[in-house]
Amino acid sequence: MNLFTQKEQLKSIIESILFIAEKPVSIKILKTILNISENHIKEVIKELINEYKSRNSGIIIINIEDSYQMVTNPENADWIKIFKNLNANNKLSEQAFETLAIIAYKQPITKAEVEKIRNVNSDYAIKSLIEKKLIKIVGKKDVPGRPFLYGTTKEFLKLFGLSSLSELPGFYELQKINAA
Asked: Is residue 29 within 8 Å of residue 20, measured between CB atoms?
């Protein structure tokens, strides 16, 4: 292996370690892992820092008391806040997830039928799922009162990586997943 390849591989290894680390990684730990000198490690990290800086990367490496950590570029803080707020709004509560599962497997289904299965009021869960565009009204049931029928949407399929409802796990597959 030539020197260039070794150096690029070393940069790749250090970059990977810093990327997965939840807290700053000390030079001593990197030295133990890589079995090379502290000066060589510092030189490689300095090159990584300069590479990120030169291309105005969204990721930077910072030095904290002779330890290093990969973090987001503070210049992008406003965008990260927007993303985090969107992401927090997209989380499903346990109740909404349970309601969604019932609708996915039993559709078309009325709110009363969902509530009979869950044994609790599902107004909020259904409202939340409609707002998130995971379910929609697909018709009205031909019974007195003509209650709405609910079904899943394309957004539901996209969220769970399905091309059709036929790809939903069956009863035995769900048991295997639960057992794991």
From this structure: no
H or E segment and range at residue 59: strand 59-64
CB atoms near residue 142 (< 10 Å): 7
Residue with tokens 């490496």: 61
Q: Where are the domains of the chain?
A: 3-76, 94-179
Domain boundaries 94-179, corresponding CATH code: 1.10.10.10
pLDDT, tens only, 86-110: 665 567 888 999 999 999 999 999 9
CB-CB neighbours of 144 under 10 Å: 6
Residue type, 133: K
∠ CA 45-22-80 to the nearest 5 degrees? 90
Fold annotation for 3-76: Arc Repressor Mutant, subunit A (1.10.10)
pLDDT in tens, 30-42: 999 999 999 999 9
Relative to beta strand 25-26, strand 67-72 is: antiparallel
Bridge partners of 71?
60
Q: Which two tokens stand for residue 55?
A: 């291309």
